[in-house]
Specification:
The structure holds two protein chains of two kinds.
Chain A (H helix, E strand, L loop, with lengths): L1 E5 L2 E5 L5 E2 L2 E2 L4 E5 L1 H15 L5 E7 L5 H9 L4 E5 L2 H5 L5 H15 L3 E5 L10 H9 L2 E9 L7 E7 L4 E8 L2 E5 L11 H9 L2 E4 L1 H4 L11 E6 L8 E3 L3 H14 L5
Parallel strand pairs in A: 1-6, 1-8, 6-7, 7-13, 8-12, 9-12
Antiparallel strand pairs in A: 2-5, 3-4, 9-10, 10-11
Chain B lengths: L3 E4 L2 E2 L2 E2 L2 H16 L3 E6 L3 H8 L6 E5 L7 H15 L3 E5 L4 H12 L3 E5 L1 E5 L2 E8 L4 E8 L2 E5 L14 E4 L11 E8 L12 E5 L9 H11 L2 E4 L1 H5 L20 E5 L5 H4 L7 E5 L13 E3 L3 H11 L2
Parallel strand pairs in B: 1-4, 1-6, 4-5, 5-12, 6-11, 7-11, 14-15, 14-16, 16-17, 17-18
Antiparallel strand pairs in B: 2-3, 8-9, 9-10
Helix pairs in contact in B: 3-4, 5-8
The chains are: A alpha/beta, B alpha/beta.
The complex binds flavin-adenine dinucleotide (FAD) and adenosine monophosphate (AMP).
Flavin-adenine dinucleotide (FAD) sits at the interface of chains B and A.
């Protein structure tokens, strides 16, 4: 069985930052492997270690800068990586769900995996929609917000738990091939070992253009256009205590006593 | 056409609150586009649900009597058929776990753009401006699209529709292709039970990712002991296995309403806030003055928790 894991490098933002147009200024941005994708990679690697999967491939739509991040997944045990990039992608302001679906589905077509794992959401733009949209596009089954997967995958069925709101889990049987969107907490993502990190440098990382994948350039034309970005206006009338930790702690202590909830 | 179709949400025999919020959001859009508001209720006791959904502003309620519980294949097939029949401009769905299990599939099948987790919507003729958050609530963005679209709305952003309407209630004759139904729900399970019920606590000392390491939880426990309070947490602490599931506050954990909620190293992501915004007094201890938790906090200490928490514990020893 082959597993394809979609992984995204997400932007992280410093506490203090500035906005330029519809973007956060570069100097305030960092980068990381999307938290949800880290769990998806771990799940795939565990399936491989359990002998259920024989190959784990990652795919990323992203610029060359993100290769270091993608290699984290290789260091944790994925076998090889695909990175899709193109000049037309570099020019795009925003890749919406439809554009990602079209690109990722071309990769699925080329790789023909039995199982695709995505994250529930990307931590930066948080559409929470790419996995299910992709499933529909490739004619696969799917399950969103999966926090448990039985590893036997017997009879071509994935037994999963979907995490609903309010501490309720739904038990669902999903026919393969399928796309599952993976929720945090499903496993304990490992840290890459030094050996893993060394090995990752030698694992294949294949760069593909839209042309290579047979995707039309117009596929990246997002139907959504970002028109503004701003810091949300605070509606709060929060009282901020100033001073050293001793002073602020004693203010809070006093409040708790006033409320009658502290000795 | 400029109608709006809002697809309601229910689970285990109950309509979820967001269903009534969808009516409000849908009515606003329909007013702006000059169209009608259609509401769909799919599966379960649809007639009973339809009666409850007949609130002010609803023009037509389409009931789809098929199965008991949510099944995403049934929802996807039904909503696409309703779209073909009604030709609405906007399909509105909740940004719930189940909403996200079918709305993207509907959008892709209909070849429509999807915009999720919206907190505000403005329609003007053919164009829609959607407001949503990015970077865990640090910024808001507006995005514009034109033509038909699928939109999911965040819960508790629109008020619930009220009053009684005089909608016409119509049974929609759906044609479900059972061969295309590839998933089966076999049951539900409540998780997060156990020794403590954090929703009963008067004071919660709640810890988040700012604590960094498992062994640092000790300073939180010491504070809770000194205050005779209960320890709760945000999701990552439970994901890491540092605290059991029954301590998790939020959308997928517990809803709590203590007298005092002290959020320590918690950013205030929407899924966390959903579980604690009803607390009487909220205190945030966070190094980031712009963390979204500050928007709902009554009091805040913008400082390092490793300095503040021990100092506070000392206050009570
Ligand atoms: C479907 C779904 C369901 C979810 N359900 C839940 C849920 O039920 N409950 C929940 O909590 N989350 C839930 N989440 C996750 C949620 O989106 C956030 O990822 C999570 O709440 C973040 O937790 P946090 O605030 O502890 O961590 P972060 O967002 O990483 O915040 C850490 C905070 O600590 C501060 N900090 C760092 N160091 C220090 C220091 N030394 N002193 C003081 N402050 C410091 C930082 O400034 C930051 O604000 C859900 C997500 C999804 C997609
Ligand atoms: N640029 C990308 N490259 C690869 N995978 C992506 C990309 N964007 C999103 N994904 C995948 O889709 C999931 C959901 O993302 P989103 O729908 O954007 O919130 C992520 O967890 C990733 O697994």
């Amino acid at each position: 069985m082959k597993i394809l894991v979609t992984v995204k490098e997400v932007a992280t933002v410093e506490d203090e930052f500035e906005i330029e147009g519809t973007e956060i200024a570069d100097q305030y941005l960092g980068a990381d492997l999307n938290e949800w994708d880290d769990y998806a990679v771990e799940e795939a690697v565990q399936l491989q270690e359990n002998g259920v999967a024989d190959e784990v491939v990652t795919v990323t739509i992203g610029p060359e800068d993100c290769e270091q991040t993608i290699r984290q997944a290789l260091a944790k045990g994925a076998d090889r990586a695909i990175r899709v990039w193109d000049d037309s992608l570099a020019e795009a302001d925003l890749l919406d769900v439809g554009a990602k679906t079209e690109i990722l589905s071309a990769v699925v077509e080329a790789e023909d995996p039995d199982l695709v794992l995505t994250g529930v959401q990307a931590g930066d733009d948080s559409f929470g929609a790419t996995g299910v949209s992709l499933a529909e596009e490739i004619g696969a089954q799917w399950g969103a917000v999966v926090n448990h997967l039985e590893h036997d995958l017997e009879d071509g069925v994935a037994s999963v738990r979907r995490e609903l709101e309010g501490g309720v889990e739904e038990l669902t049987e999903i026919e393969l091939p399928a796309v599952l969107t993976i929720q945090t907490g499903i496993n304990e993502p490992r840290y890459a070992s030094l050996r893993g990190i060394r090995q990752a440098q030698r694992k294949p990382l294949d760069v593909q253009s839209l042309d290579d994948l047979g995707v039309e350039g117009s596929a990246v034309d997002s139907e959504l256009e970002l028109t503004d970005m701003y810091e949300p206006e605070s509606e709060s009338d929060v009282t901020v205590w100033e001073g050293g930790a001793d002073e602020t702690a004693s203010e809070l202590g006093e409040l708790l006593r006033e409320k009658g909830v502290a000795p | 056409m400029s109608d709006v179709l809002a697809v309601t949400d229910h689970r285990r025999g109950e309509l979820r609150d967001v269903s009534y919020e969808l009516i409000t959001a849908g009515r606003e859009l329909a007013d702006a586009t000059g169209g009608a508001l259609h509401v769909a209720v799919i599966s379960g006791t649809v007639d009973e649900f339809a009666e409850k959904l007949d609130r002010e502003g609803v023009d037509t309620i389409h009931t789809v009597d098929h199965g008991e519980e949510f099944n995403h294949d049934v929802y996807t097939q039904t909503v696409t058929q309703l779209y073909d029949e009604l030709a609405p401009q906007y399909v509105l769905a909740p940004n719930s776990v189940n909403g996200l299990d079918y709305a993207p599939a509907v959008a892709n099948q209909l070849d429509l753009p999807i915009v999720t987790d919206t907190v505000d919507l403005e329609a003007d003729g053919d164009s829609l401006t959607a407001t949503r958050e990015m970077y865990g609530g640090k910024v808001e963005t507006t995005a514009e699209l034109s033509g038909d679209a699928v939109v999911t709305i965040r819960g508790a952003e629109w008020p619930a529709a009220e009053g009684t309407g005089d909608a016409s209630i119509e049974a929609f004759d759906v044609d479900i292709d059972e061969d295309a139904v590839g998933s089966t729900v076999t049951g539900f399970e409540e998780v997060g039970g156990g020794d403590v019920d954090i929703s009963e606590a008067d004071v919660l000392v709640s810890v988040g990712r700012g604590i960094e390491e498992e062994e640092n939880l000790e300073i939180i426990r010491e504070l809770a002991d000194a205050l005779d309070a209960t320890v709760s947490s945000s999701r990552p602490i439970v994901d890491n296995g540092w605290l059991p599931k029954n301590r998790q506050v939020g959308q997928s954990g517990k809803v709590v309403t203590p007298d005092v909620y002290v959020a320590i190293g918690i950013s205030g992501a929407v899924q966390h806030v959903a579980g604690m915004k009803g607390s009487d007094t909220i205190v945030a201890i966070n190094t980031d003055p712009n963390a979204p938790i500050m928007d709902i906090a009554d009091y805040a200490i913008v400082d390092d928790l490793f300095d503040v928490v021990p100092a506070l514990t000392e206050e009570f020893q």
